[in-house]
Design brief:
This protein has 817 residues and is an alpha+beta fold. Helices cover 39% and strands 15% of the residues. A hairpin with a 6-residue loop joins strand 1 (64-67) and strand 2.
């Protein structure tokens, strides 16, 4: 309740007396002999009357709290100053009475200025020749701290705290104005929330946690007295310093005596309180992503949250302003971190690869349709390596190792999973075939589009002669498992078996620049300078023949989110670490936490891509067209409708795998962050299959745990036109001369190719044994003609393949997996 109104006469008298006292103070400071000069007093009153009365108060810095997606589990505290404002009713009466007894015993009996105290202090200090006694009321102290927190320049901070008469006069003027606007209870609440208590604690909430590990409403008399005694000089009375503990005890006991003097407690209560031993049981609040609260389980996610925040224009014009908002804004942040998925990912990673392994096994999980990042896990410790006692191993990069440079294992704060800074990402291999497939679907090629996959394929895409994947002046490629991959392939079987010699010619026909464009729309960042150069223009991208094989660098998060986009029927959502952000000052939820989504590709195209992507992981397309998969065991483990893709780069330098359902998509990459060109990936993981036993296992086990208790959601099938296109009947050319068969097929609207491998059949040798496909296929599609070797006689061994489209074989030295 507001104290009694003193009336206009009382307030006017206070102003007059303060003005006169101000004149005395100023005069005494400048001209001691003229301390009681009426002229000086008159001048002081006029100056005082012109001082401003409107105190602009900026909110003092507050801790921002980040919680997991359950809204209950605290995963990080982020602050510049350890402070949390709380209402007065959450502060014990002991604390309120103690601070009044220690700092302003007349608090409830003045208008912000203790006139008797000012006069008494002036006389005492004048007689002593220096400042020995203060006269600042709680209100004046609050004003001083509020001005300091509202300062916008270093000079304004100095002006707010320097020991000058001008500052004191300004505080008096503001204090009287504050007392008119606020009740005593409101002033006391604000004072206890802003005051410094030492050891990084600002405000009574932080102080009670730091020193006693309890909420302020539970503070006892001796505990409250100890805290109240700290405000005058937190460092001098620090109870955590053994050398200063006696002074802290004396100061506490003095406050207890003052509480008895003011009647806040009885003499007996005071005597009992003074006998209580000082027990400091709390500790500094954890702060930041490397704190013990956060780093062991959630450090990399916390770092991603921080980096995401610094990119949001909502929080300021530049990264400095945005960081200040994060660490002083007092936000309640409900993150997207799913504790169950995070724990599963970390568990499965730790079972497979240890933290000191050169290779990082990185796993990210994303929710389709929102972009919410549910997990970020890796076999590394999120911490800075000690400079004085380093734990990190020497870099696996031979050049750096020879110079004694240490690598990023087991300790690092690099954003390994999300990219940024010096982390451009890692090659993800054949997972990038997805982008070529989508580009083909967008340009009229149906899932059933057939290409006769050779063991090796020489494209018409020019490259520098003599390169590792060049055949003369052209880019060429071969398959990792020729016998399992060769022959007529469509998107279902080409994607399922990861047939390089299907996807490179498909990319060539669609245009590599269109595949790159799809990747951009699905969130691939192209962070490295070389990747950015290729992706920077259509002309440059047009010559990027190897793009479909995943030579561009990406991160587990971007890869998972790209696949999550097609699981969400083509709706791309920017990856986000938050579900909700509450401004506790205004009690308003911020829109920046809402998913930021748009339709990146057509819904039906996305559904067609998912239909083919069910093949690699052992699921079945809506049309039953899957036939073989590179990770065919996944469906049986996840036990839900699932899609995904594996990928490996040259010489097993990296391995990647993505798998997902309608609810969760998990992406993983195994790579050496310190040496991108390593050829020791398999050796580093003990000779194990880097897919089946390492990256695939970490991903599908995490996915299985994530969806175990979720209902199965079926993928919607694509329209038949996207699956099969404009279907036409294939003429029966069995036993016809080859040239006649080719002409007839071409006339029917197909693209015939003649296989170089003869087949035994009942047709005369040299005629057509069969076609693949037969019956019906898409208009314009390839029909492979197999030549008969005649009945009975075994076909001759395969000679050089001579496709009828003017394509020649790449010599054995050209290989790109």
């Amino acid at each position: 309740m507001r104290r009694r109104d003193h009336g206009l006469l009382t307030n006017a008298s206070s102003l007059l007396i303060c003005g006169l006292l101000a004149g005395v103070v100023v005069a005494a400071a400048a001209f001691p002999a003229a301390a009681i000069s009426g002229l000086a007093a008159k001048a002081g009153a006029e100056t005082f009357d012109k001082l401003p009365t409107e105190l602009t108060v900026q909110r003092s810095p507050q801790i921002s709290y980040a919680y997991a997606s359950d809204g209950k589990t605290l995963i990080a505290m982020l602050y510049d100053e350890n402070r949390r404002d709380i209402p007065l009713d959450q502060m014990s009466d002991n604390m309120q009475k103690a601070i009044i007894a220690a700092e302003d015993q007349n608090f409830f009996h003045h208008n912000g200025v203790d006139l008797k105290g000012i006069a008494r202090a002036f006389v005492a200090n004048h007689n002593a020749g220096e400042t020995e006694q203060g006269a600042s009321t709680l209100t004046m102290q609050y004003v001083r701290m509020a001005i300091s927190y509202s300062a916008r320049t270093p000079q304004e901070v100095v002006d707010a705290t320097e020991d000058t008469n001008a500052r004191k006069l300004r505080e008096i003027r503001y204090a009287m104005a504050v007392e008119k606007r606020l009740t005593k209870q409101q002033i006391l609440e604000r004072y206890l929330n802003i005051a410094p208590f030492g050891n990084g604690a600002y405000g009574v909430f932080a102080a009670s946690q730091v020193y006693f590990n309890k909420p302020p409403k539970d503070l006892t008399v001796p505990e409250a007295a100890l805290l109240a005694g700290l405000v005058k000089a937190p460092s001098a009375f620090d109870p955590t310093d053994p050398a200063k503990r006696p002074d802290a005890l004396d100061r506490r006991n003095w406050v207890i005596d003052q509480m008895a003097k003011t009647g806040a407690i009885s003499r007996a209560e005071a005597d009992a309180a003074k006998q209580t031993e000082i027990k400091v049981s709390g500790k500094r609040a954890p702060n930041g992503c490397t704190s013990q609260l956060t780093a062991p389980k959630w450090g990399f996610f916390c770092d991603y949250l921080t980096r995401w925040w610094l990119e949001q224009e909502t929080f300021g014009a530049n990264s400095y302003d945005r960081e200040r908002r994060l660490k002083s804004g007092g936000y309640k942040i409900i993150t997207s971190l799913d504790l169950k998925i995070q724990a599963a990912a970390q568990k499965h990673i730790d079972k497979i690869v240890k933290a000191d392994n050169p290779d990082a096994l990185m796993v990210a999980a994303v929710e389709p349709g929102t972009g919410r990042v549910q997990a970020l896990a890796v076999n590394r410790h999120f911490k800075l390596d000690s400079r004085t006692n380093p734990q990190n191993k020497l870099s696996s990069d031979p050049k750096k190792r020879s110079k004694g440079v240490r690598g990023s294992r087991p300790n690092t704060t690099n954003p390994l999973l999300t990219g940024g800074g010096d982390v451009d990402g890692y090659q993800a291999g054949s997972t990038f075939k997805l982008f070529t497939m989508i580009a083909a679907l967008e340009n009229g090629y149906p899932l059933s589009y057939t290409i006769n996959a050779q063991d090796r394929y020489v494209s018409r895409i020019p490259v520098e002669e003599g390169g590792p994947a060049s055949c003369g002046h052209f880019y060429c490629v071969e398959n990792a498992n020729p016998s399992w991959m060769r022959g007529p392939r469509n998107m279902w079987t080409g994607f399922g078996r990861s047939v390089n010699t299907y996807f490179v010619p498909l990319e060539e026909r669609v245009g590599p620049e269109k595949a790159v464009d799809v990747a951009k729309r699905l969130g691939i960042q192209f962070r490295s300078s070389l990747d950015a150069q290729y992706a920077g223009s259509k002309q440059a991208a047009h010559g990027w023949g190897a793009f479909t094989l995943g030579v561009s660098q990406t991160t587990p998060l971007d890869l998972a989110n790209a696949y999550a986009t097609i699981a969400a029927d083509g709706k791309y959502c920017s990856p986000t670490p938050v579900r909700e952000i509450l401004d506790t000052f205004t009690n308003q939820k911020l829109d920046v936490a809402n998913p930021s989504c748009h339709q990146a590709i057509d819904k039906d195209v996305a559904r067609a891509a998912v239909d083919a992507a069910r093949c690699p992981v052992g699921d079945q397309s809506a049309f039953g067209k899957c036939n073989g998969g590179t990770a065919a065991n996944v469906h049986g483990i996840v036990k839900k409708p699932v899609f995904g893709k594996s990928g490996t780069t040259d010489s097993n330098r990296t391995a990647a795998f993505v798998a997902g359902t309608k609810q969760v998509v998990v992406g993983g990459i195994l790579a050496d962050p310190d040496w991108a060109q390593t050829t020791q990936l398999r050796q580093n993981v003990g000779g194990r299959d880097i897919h089946g036993q390492v990256v695939n296992k970490a991903v599908y086990e995490t996915l299985a745990d994530a969806v175990r208790d979720l209902p199965a959601e079926e993928f919607a099938p694509p329209p038949e036109k996207l699956a099969f296109g404009d279907q036409r009947s294939i003429p029966d050319v069995t036993c016809k001369p080859v040239d006649d068969a080719r002409a007839r097929l071409r006339g029917a609207g197909f693209d015939p190719e003649v296989s170089s491998n003869p087949e035994r059949s009942n047709c005369p040798a040299g005629t057509v044994a069969r076609t693949d496909p037969s019956g019906r296929t898409v208009k314009g599609g390839i029909v492979v003609v197999y030549v008969s070797s005649g009945p009975g006689a075994p076909p001759p061994g395969p000679g050089p393949t001579k496709p009828s489209r003017g394509v020649t074989l790449c010599p054995p030295v050209c290989r790109d997996n």
